[in-house]
Structure prediction request, 94 residues.
Amino acid sequence: MEQVVTLEDARRRIAELEKENGALREELESYKNRKLSGRQKHNAKWMAIYNDFVACYEDGMTMVEIAKRNHVSERTMYRYKAYYEEMQKADTTE
Prediction:
């Protein structure tokens, strides 16, 4: 049982689909442009501060001094220290 589609019906359906496609593209752009919430683990800023932490920590600076130097909380420094120790442990087991 074939459905008979006239040229006008096809044009109407194409217009509906183009309108829907436009709305979906706008929605996609809003998702692309949204700001990701929360801490972005290991992005460029994180790595820069972490690398500075490693250099200072290995030179013997205290956590408070490193935190003030990088303008971050002491808790962040302890997170970096935990990550540093985890990486050191992984290096020794290999």
Observations:
- The mean pLDDT is 87.
